[in-house]
Design goal:
175 residues, 45% helix, 14% strand
Length: 175
């Protein structure tokens, strides 16, 4: 097997980078934020800027997929385990990456808020100590017997037919 690629997706400000930093600190898993990848690509692909302003999540996910796939291929070759995180990752990415990267194990987690409003986003001032402590106690793992992100799939509203994990949909971080 070439390696393990872990994907962490979800809306802005749900804790994707915090989770990635935690996994780097505790398990030594290197990570690539898609913000970095998107910023580099915008310098050479001006059409990506048009999709990014204002953000059309479905178009951005589709435009970013080939580049995320290439990054995942390189990451899987360079490290035994590697995490890619960002809001551009779509629930259909794991299945597509498994098909494109034979021999690479791909697992995914999509974070979200059960009750998150625009006012919450506008008032965000960074993680509190209680949120940091909560993350340390509860960082995301699939429940035993769930088969990870590949089993128990439903349908994504953004793209019908794209698998999404039932356990990942229920994960939320307190505001």
């Amino acid at each position: 097997m070439a390696g393990h690629v872990l994907l962490v997706g979800g809306a802005p400000r749900v804790g994707k980078s915090s989770l990635a930093q935690h996994l780097l600190a505790t398990d030594g898993i290197p990570w690539l934020p898609t913000d970095v990848l998107r910023t580099v690509l915008q310098r050479v692909l001006p059409e990506l800027d048009a999709i990014d302003q204002p953000v059309d999540a479905a178009l951005l996910a589709e435009a970013m997929y080939p580049h995320v796939e290439q990054a995942a291929e390189v990451c899987a070759e360079e490290a035994d385990r590697f995490l890619i995180e960002g809001f551009e990752l779509a629930p259909c990415y794991p299945a597509r990456l498994r098909a494109a990267l034979a021999g690479t194990e791909v697992r995914a987690c999509f974070l979200g808020h059960g009750s998150f409003s625009i006012a919450d986003l506008a008032g965000y001032r960074g993680r509190s100590r209680s949120t940091t402590a909560h993350l340390r106690r509860t960082w995301v793992r699939p429940p035993a017997g769930s088969g990870g992100a590949a089993s128990g799939c439903g349908t994504s509203a953004a793209r019908p037919g794209c698998p999404t994990s039932t356990w990942a949909r229920s994960v939320s971080r307190p505001p």
